[in-house]
Structure formats: C-alpha cells, structure tokens
Design goal:
alpha/beta, four-stranded mixed β-sheet
C-alpha cells in the first residue's frame, strides 16, 4: 500500500548512462565498468533522477558496496540545493582511512559542501535500545583500529537534527 516507491533497475553513479556490472559474490559484489552488455546495467545520477521527476530530497541513504562516493558525486547539485541528510556506509575494503576518516575522499567531499560528519556507533549485539540515545562520533574522533570492518556514517548541514533527546555525541571510541 505504499505510494512513494519507484522501482528502478538503474544504478546510482557519478554519471548517467554508464554501463556497469557487479563484480564479486552476492551482497558483497561491487560495481565495475562493464566491457560488454552481458550482465550490464545503466546508471543514473541522483541529480538527473531528481531533475527528471521534480523531486526534492531530505535524506539520501546509501549502502552500495564502495560506490557511495560515486553516487554522491552524482548528487552534488542536489546536495548543494536541498541539503539532504546523508547516511552512508564506509568499509575498509573500499575506503582507505589510514590517514584518518576525516581525510578520506568521501568525507573531504562532503565537508567541502558544508556537511558535518559523524560515525554511527553500532553495538553489533542484542542491546536494548528503547531508552538509549543513538551515539554519534565526530569524524575526527573515531577510533579505527582492529580487523577490517565497515560502519555507517551520518552527514548533515543542519545540526539542529541532532536532538539531544535522540542522539549523544561520544569521542575516541570505535563505531563497532
């Protein structure tokens, strides 16, 4: 009964009409340029998609196995115009954070557009959250040591969304 869903077989990317294919196993596959039409799919930018449908975005949520930066580069006009909040995944398999999370290309890109960026703390266990606040870690205060892993990030231009009844800012802890 939902009326606001539009299914599309297009992949989000930095350019529209590029042919990509998935490389890798199942949900861990990542997008690569297709050299033939076999298993290829067309791409669309978020900017073009929104423009074609006269859509204004308030939220962009991405978990697309390393293609998050490409999708956000294809959303620059939308990010500047609509200032949507952005939830996205980073994973050590796709993002080099050896010089700090704030120095990754995706975080620098969003920062240059005016976003404040936080890692979302994931307790990764059965933990009763009903009366707990969601913990956010400022991008320059994230503890990143440990085995290869990924976690979600939150970016906003409007710090008023960080309602103290819902969120708690913590520092120097791991998102996992």
């Amino acid at each position: 009964g939902l009326s606001n869903i539009d299914l599309s077989e297009l992949g989000l990317w930095s350019q529209s009409s590029v042919k990509l294919k998935l490389d890798g196993f199942d949900s861990f596959a990542n997008a690569v340029l297709a050299t033939s039409d076999a298993d290829a799919f067309q791409t669309v930018t978020i900017d073009d998609y929104c423009s074609q449908r006269s859509i204004t975005l308030s939220l962009i949520e991405l978990d697309i196995e390393g293609a998050e930066l490409a999708a956000l580069k294809g959303a620059e006009r939308t990010l500047r115009r609509d200032s949507p909040d952005v939830v996205f995944e980073v994973h050590r398999s796709y993002v080099d954070w050896s010089r700090g999370l704030q120095n990754t290309e995706i975080c620098r890109y969003l920062s240059e557009i005016g976003y404040q960026i936080y890692a979302v703390r994931d307790f990764n266990t059965h933990y009763e959250m009903q009366s707990k606040k969601i913990e956010l870690i400022p991008v320059d205060k994230v503890f990143l040591e440990g085995p290869p892993h990924g976690f979600n990030m939150f970016a906003t231009k409007d710090l008023h969304v960080l309602d103290e009844s819902l969120f708690r800012i913590v520092e120097n802890v791991s998102p996992k």
